[in-house]
Design brief:
This is J domain-containing protein. By secondary structure, the protein is mainly α. It is built from nine helices and no strands. It is globular and about 65 Å long.
Length: 183
């Protein structure tokens, strides 16, 4: 992406709905939203633009912040309903929802959200996905190896650290279970 494209995004950003940012229809599912957000993050995550001029980095950060704001609103069913109502009245970015998403309580992901959705670094995502897959297959040791890789790419991520503790408990339980079978 060149500087002109960044300027175009900045110029258009105030005229885009949250759906437009992700190129989604208002009836898009949560999975479609998640995929669109990941695609957006691959393009606009500030970590991928550290080589740019500071003014371009600031612009990328501003665009990314708006995208994360949009994702928080659209991924929360209650906020999404309120947003759709505001959008029907011609309000693209209702301040009441922006304030609601910036409070400390709504920054925590919903309990039913997948672990991969809580990952901040795009490079950690494949390792988290593999770890989740291995847990489902009943292999917590291999899942922990994958999770450690993800944690190196996304350090100090509370969700990953909590999952690591769960895996440690699962490994201990599986080890104890294996020992009881050998007796």
């Amino acid at each position: 992406m060149d500087g002109g494209a960044i300027r175009d995004w900045l110029a258009a950003l105030e005229h885009l709905s949250y759906y437009d940012i992700f190129r989604l229809a208002p009836h898009a599912s949560h999975d479609e939203l998640r995929l669109a957000f990941h695609s957006f993050a691959d393009t606009f995550h500030p970590d991928g633009h550290q080589w740019r001029h500071p003014s371009e980095q600031a612009a990328i950060g501003y665009i990314f912040k708006r995208g994360t704001e949009a994702y928080r609103v659209l991924s929360d069913p209650a906020l999404r309903a309120r947003y759709n109502e505001a959008l029907a009245n011609g309000i693209l970015r209702p301040e009441s929802l922006v304030v609601a998403t910036s409070g400390s309580g709504s920054l925590t992901p919903p309990a039913n959200q997948r672990l991969v959705d809580k990952v901040r670094s795009p490079g950690a995502r494949p390792f988290v996905l593999r770890a989740e897959e291995l847990v489902k297959k009943g292999d917590p040791k291999q899942a922990k190896i994958q999770l450690v890789m993800a944690m190196h790419m996304d350090p100090k991520n509370a969700a990953l650290e909590a999952f690591a503790k769960e895996l440690d408990d699962a490994i201990k339980a599986k080890s104890a279970d294996d020992k009881s079978w050998k007796k």
